[in-house]
Amino acid sequence: MQLLALLLLTQNWYSVAMNINGNSTELGSFDGATTYPASMPAILLGLAAAVISFLVVGWSRRIVFLTGSLVNLLLAFWLSLQISTKNIAALDVQLDRLTGIAKTHGVSGLSVSVTLYPWLWLAAAIITSAIALRLAVSKTAFVKQGSNKRSSKGEQLTAIDIWEQQRD
Questions:
Q1: C-alpha to C-alpha distances, 118 to 20, 56, 103, 114, nearest whole angstrom
Q2: Rounded CA separation 18/27 (Å)
Q3: What is the mean pLDDT of the chain?
Q4: What stretches of 105-158 show up as alpha helix (H) in DSSP?
């Protein structure tokens, strides 16, 4: 899911157009990582947490999952606010370059449209956070612990007995 969120972050989230003499001209399309520069490091932190979770055990794994979940939830909350208000302030320099001379002649009517990708990313981020949070609070291990070995007579086997059986 984390890789899906990374892929969705690099898709076109916004399309910016300008009305010139009644005709709409698209100035450009912008992805989530360009529009919200803080999102890429946060997504990469979540991806790193997912990879690290395979390398650690016990409480360390829970802390890694909890950290990844918290980062994803905070990013999802912040970006949902930014997307719903169509806040593209980070693109001001690029939009100034794209509109260029049109602004000096009084041409305006800049329109911003949101694609489906930010909402898909938001769903993926929430699902990823829920899974990570579930794994963080879960007390079951990924690998089942072996049960105590018993002999065919029903007696408890010692480590030496098991070793002797394996030698035979």
A1: 28, 32, 29, 8
A2: 7
A3: 82
A4: 117-137
